[in-house]
Amino acid sequence: MSTAIPVREFFSIGDVCDLTELKPHVLRYWESQFRFLHPAKNRSGNRVYQRREVELIMLVKQLLYVEKYTIDGARQRVEEYKKAGELKALARAALGAQTVVSLERELQNILILLDGGVVREIEE
Description:
Layout: E1 10-12, H1 13-20, H2 24-33, E2 40-41, E3 47-50, H3 51-66, H4 71-84, H5 87-114
Antiparallel strand pairs: 1-3, 2-3
Helix pairs in contact: 3-4, 3-5
């Protein structure tokens, strides 16, 4: 389940997967496709994502999965946002939109449980 982003500055790849509802291989692939997604690695060699990178991942997810951009199109769109000075605000908005979707899904599951139904994982 995805929830509001915790008040922290650094996140493991597992944390980011939980927050974004993405698989680790997707995040690693996106790192190869988007220059701005380059998490640092700790002494053990594990990825450590900063809060702003999580927000950017949510923006990329929004562009690819909701707005149906290609990888190249999403990359160009992010560059346009950056040049216009809108990148930070739009990345935070994408994170907020994901939080709303996750909350709606959880509320639907609660309603199903209250009606005596069986909850199944709802896919987007």
